[in-house]
């Protein structure tokens, strides 16, 4: 399983509309995200427009390819593109990813603390 984090910048003047467009997302787009193999997907939006996305997947290349070929995702991303600053291409395909530098569950087994934390 891969954990993927992306970072984008939403145009400050469009923050409220961006929030509204995600409450709720089109049901057919939700189905495409799930069919692509993305799970535990969240978006976090800061007051200044910084957007952080997180999801888990077994194969991010396959998920990206699935969504790139999806007419539903293409329509959604075409509508979403205007919200972002400095992005060249579809948001779902061009969003820069952030490298993971720490994950608690990866380090607990070798820390000697796992037994203590699971006893709490």
From TrEMBL:
Pfam families to which the protein is assigned, alphabetical: rhaM
Question: Quick one: signal sequence residues?
Answer: none
Output the superkingdom of the source species.
Bacteria
Q: What is this protein called?
A: L-rhamnose mutarotase
């Amino acid at each position: 399983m891969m954990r993927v984090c992306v970072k984008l910048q939403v145009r400050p003047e469009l923050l409220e509309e961006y929030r509204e467009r995600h409450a709720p997302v089109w049901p057919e787009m939700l189905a495409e995200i799930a069919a692509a193999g993305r799970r535990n997907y969240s978006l976090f939006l800061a007051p200044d427009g910084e957007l952080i996305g997180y999801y888990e997947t077994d194969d991010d290349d396959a998920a990206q390819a699935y969504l790139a070929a999806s007419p539903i995702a293409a329509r959604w991303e075409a509508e979403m593109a205007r919200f972002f600053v400095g992005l060249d291409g579809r948001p779902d395909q061009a969003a820069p990813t952030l490298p993971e530098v720490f994950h608690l569950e990866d380090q607990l087994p070798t820390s000697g603390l796992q037994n203590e934390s699971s006893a709490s």
